[in-house]
Specification:
289 residues; mainly alpha; 13 helices; globular
Length: 289
């Protein structure tokens, strides 16, 4: 039992390091790629990696489970990768990662509303506090960065809702499948749509550009490590813990992303720092038993 507990925390920290670094990789990828090119390429690289190592697990997925594999593919990866890419054309990687930390609150909300989980007063207070913090973060960012369109922050909030729904679905319907089978199934379904998007986004017209090639290298790391390997770890973490604990990795992601942002000349205002702390306080309250 103690070993399992230590393993949970190890997985949590490794995920935070991987996903916390993903936001700066998205930023670097957007230098030479459009959001749709980046999102599609990210899915393709992850799909190639996961199918190479997990193709043999696909027959282990019962036929009646494929509808849940499809839904989790859409909510857990397909929609969010494009939303984050589009959002980061207007808001910083640090702000994007902080708003993503609302995922545990959304996980709790979906768990209560759609999956019959009970809730406490502290958890409800946590939701309100987290929403207040996110509003403060967005409004102050919009006031101090008039050149950026902070309405795009809504896309990150929608992505966090998709992640929250995905976590609950996996915990409820796919817990008996191996993480590799879930991941390989997800990306087997997304591969062809991603290739079509990449083709119609004129990726193969601009690939000869050196700037595009450099961005593709960042997206390759993002796809294989930030999506492929991270999904395997995340699905395992969901299975061995609770949905809210697994989604609480988003406590730590902003810390990693913030330090990457500092190295890349991003800085939050004091009010945005306060908003970030309020969000994390709300997430902490919602995660308490």
């Amino acid at each position: 039992m103690e070993a399992t507990k230590q393993q949970k925390w190890l997985y949590l920290v490794v995920l935070a390091l991987i996903w916390g670094s993903s936001f700066v990789l998205i930023k670097k990828g957007l230098v030479g790629l459009t959001p749709f090119q980046l999102g599609a390429a990210r899915i393709i690289f992850a799909a190639i990696f996961l199918l190479l190592i997990g193709f043999r697990t696909l027959p282990s997925i019962p036929s009646y489970k494929w509808k849940y594999i499809a839904i989790t593919a859409i909510t857990g990866t397909f929609i969010p990768v494009f939303l984050f890419s589009i959002a980061q054309t207007q808001i910083s990687s640090s702000v994007s990662s902080i708003l993503n930390s609302l995922t545990p609150l959304n996980t709790l909300g979906f768990g209560v509303l759609a999956f019959g989980l009970s809730t406490t007063r502290n958890q409800l207070i946590g939701v309100v506090v987290g929403l207040f913090g996110s509003g403060l973060l967005i409004l102050n960012g919009a006031a101090n960065h008039p050149e950026q369109n902070y309405w795009y922050a809504v896309l990150v909030l929608i992505a966090s809702m998709c992640y929250a729904l995905n976590v609950n679905l996996i915990k409820r319907y796919l817990s008996e499948l191996s993480p590799l089978a879930i991941s390989a199934g997800n990306f087997a379904l997304m591969l062809i749509p991603a290739v079509l998007i990449l083709f119609f986004a004129d990726f193969f017209v601009v690939i000869e550009s050196v700037e595009v090639q450099q961005s593709v290298l960042f997206v390759m790391v993002l796809g294989v490590v930030g999506t492929g390997i991270a999904n395997l770890i995340f699905f395992r973490l969901i299975q061995m813990s609770s949905a809210v604990f697994a989604s609480s990795v988003t406590y730590l992601i902003p810390v990693v992303a913030f330090f990457w942002g500092l190295l890349d000349n991003e800085m939050l205002t004091p009010i945005q720092f306060l908003g970030a702390l309020i969000i994390l306080a709300g997430v902490y309250l919602s995660g308490r038993k």
